[in-house]
Amino acid sequence: MKNPKVIAAIIGAVVLILIGSVWFFVFRETPTGNQEQLEQVLPEGMEVEPVEASVKVAIEPIENNRKVRLTIDNIPSKYKTIEYDLLYDAKDGVPRGVQGTITLDGSSYEKDIVLGSCSTNVCTYDEGVTEVKLTMRFSDGTSARVFDKTFPL
Prior knowledge:
There is one protein chain. The protein is an alpha+beta fold. Helix content is 16%, strand content 43%. The protein contains one helix and ten strands. The protein has one helix at residues 4-27, and strands spanning 49-50, 56-62, 67-73, 81-89, 95-103, 109-114, 116-119, 122-125, 131-139, 144-152. The strands form three sheets. Strands 1-10-9-4-5 form a five-stranded mixed beta sheet, with no helix packed on it. The chain has a three-stranded antiparallel beta sheet with strand order 2-3-6, with no helix packed on it. A hairpin with a 4-residue loop joins β2 (56-62) and β3 (67-73). It is elongated and about 80 Å long. The N and C termini lie far apart (81 Å).
């Protein structure tokens, strides 16, 4: 008969491989595609307080809805960065979006955001945009607060 230690080691290895396989197939993450781009700004299950009511956020359509102007006022000085997701549907029904991070250096911020894509001074604009959903995560480095609103254009 063979060495009992070798047999025990082989059985142990087989059991570990079986447990690992079950674990992989039962607990692996499945890709969700474009389903929730918001998760990049707000991780799933994360409870976040809303941003202070003194913070004023506006979205204004400009250039015949080819762009929007994002304006944020009364930003408390404790915040260092803002991560944002601007989501919308174009007339073809395909969900589109713009993501970014703002490094703050004052109590207000303004930016024009293209609804479409640009490359080497040539832009292709998304048509038929009627509203945008803006989600922002205001961070002070150790904690965060959120702003979430849909704006009609």
